[in-house]
Design goal:
465 residues; six-stranded antiparallel sheet; single chain
């Protein structure tokens, strides 16, 4: 941990009953939890035996949080929840009190809003369940001392959390699997959708259609594992939820905010769905049969980056690796296959160069969500273009770059002049841009008249010479 170690004389021996890494239900030695608080690397950690499983962090802008929280012994940290409520208007001081240690761990927290606008208390209980892992049980009580003590958005998030994004490789495609959200809906249906920030804005016109059923769960998936936010039936509010597009955030939305004198009682449990359970759930929450109209629930689909398999207009907006703007999918023309993006330059009138509202085909890349660390010195950004009856030029460019420190990249665009038609032609550029950026937009930018096809868009590391 934040240190250097060296090892020698490794020995590997087979252990009987070694657990399947994809499941928590198979063999292995029975685990006996022993929870306690210990000071470690300058932080206040919750330990299980000699294994650190979370630490307490006072976020200067959003309140008390748990960091590096684990959902099973020996498994990587997967989630960072707020201990109370996610608030931008609280007093920096607060309470964290441990009330039980040992086989069960318990603690409580308290936050107070600025000018005493609200008070939020939380009571946590941590237990271990064989075959399931850790069960982090959280109860919150939010009391409004003033009207509009919290904005509607802020009261959405007594159960806000952020996932940890393990980087498994130096390459941009660091994720082992696509990330999705699984939601057990109030009408009994299981829906699964890609990260789209808010299901109620990007996925569904009527958020009541995606309310989590009492005693159901909303599950965010990372590297095949599921972080389950179970919603017991004793909540005072019903919730729907959305999985943030760039920060791996889970937001839960309640239909209303408490007025002065009213209280909000919430109850939630963080648990783990192993890879086998996630795999079965994703298989159950898929699109209808091929060729039929998309369901209004917008079930799980393959995002149209290179495959261009589906267009879901309801998901236009705040999405990552989901192309937005004006284009269609051609299932007869493709670069090496029969699927590509078809763009009519005449349809594109708005060029506002922002994350939202631009009609040029575009996709927002977020390093925390998809790419892992940008460690290569340079990256190749490009696409394949085919045209018939198009006059002008087609560019691929990068803009809206979020930098930790302001600077200008060396190259951020390349263009292909076309006069009438061209067979599949590669257009791209090399740049060191992604190495320091945490978010950016790739755009297909045509200037001219007519239509053209785009396929196999890439962001690839350039090997060091």
């Amino acid at each position: 941990r934040e240190s250097r170690s060296s090892f020698s004389n490794f020995a590997f021996e087979e252990l009987p009953g070694t657990p399947d890494r994809t499941s928590l239900a198979s063999g292995g030695v029975a685990h006996k939890p022993d929870f306690k608080v210990r000071e470690w690397v300058g932080k206040k950690y919750i330990f299980d035996g000699d294994e650190p499983i979370a630490w307490v962090f006072w976020n200067p802008t959003e309140g008390i949080e748990l960091r590096e929280m684990k959902l099973a012994p020996g498994l990587m940290p997967m989630v960072m929840p707020c201990a109370g409520i996610a608030s931008y208007d609280f007093k920096p001081e607060g309470d964290f009190n441990v009330t039980a240690q040992g086989a069960t761990f318990a603690f409580n927290t308290k936050q107070v809003g600025k000018a005493d606008a609200f008070e939020c208390t939380a009571n946590w209980t941590l237990t271990y369940a064989a075959g399931q892992g850790y069960v982090w049980d959280k109860r919150v009580k939010f009391t409004a001392n003033k009207d509009k003590a919290q904005t509607e958005f802020q009261i959405d998030d007594p159960f806000f959390y952020q996932l940890v994004a393990p980087a498994t490789d130096k390459l941009p495609a660091a994720r082992a699997t696509l990330n999705h959200t699984i939601l057990e809906r109030a009408d009994g249906k299981l829906i699964a959708f890609p990260n789209a920030h808010h299901c109620w804005t990007d996925g569904l016109a009527d958020c009541n259609k995606s309310v989590i059923r009492p005693d159901g769960a909303i599950v965010t998936v990372i590297d095949g594992w599921g972080v389950a936010a179970e919603m017991p039936s004793d909540n005072t509010h019903h919730f729907t939820g959305g999985y943030c597009h760039w920060g791996l955030d889970l937001h839960l939305r309640a239909p209303e905010s408490p007025a002065k004198g009213q209280a909000f009682d919430g109850h939630m449990r963080y648990t783990l769905w192993d890879r086998e359970r996630v795999k079965k759930a994703l298989a159950a929450g898929v699109l209808p049969e091929p060729g039929k109209a998309n369901a209004p629930e917008l079930f799980r689909h393959v995002e149209p980056v290179n495959g261009f398999r589906e267009i879901l207009p309801g998901l236009n907006g705040q999405s990552v690796r989901l192309w937005t703007g004006k284009y269609s999918v051609d299932h007869k023309v493709g670069h090496g296959d029969t699927t590509s993006m078809l763009v009519n330059a005449g349809d594109i009138k708005s060029r506002v160069t922002s994350l939202y509202g631009d009609e040029r085909p575009n996709v927002w890349q977020g390093s925390s969500y998809w790419m892992g660390p940008y460690l290569a010195p340079k990256y190749k950004i490009g696409m394949w273009v085919k045209a018939e009856k198009f006059t002008g030029k087609v560019a691929i460019l990068v803009d809206n770059i979020g930098w930790p420190k302001a600077r200008e990249p060396k190259t951020i665009s390349a263009e292909l002049p076309i006069n009438g038609s061209c067979d599949w032609t590669y257009v791209g550029f090399e740049t060191d841009m992604p190495r320091g950026a945490y978010s950016w937009v790739v755009r297909v930018d045509p200037t001219g008249e007519g239509s053209f096809w785009v396929d196999d868009v890439e962001v690839s590391p350039v090997p060091a010479k």
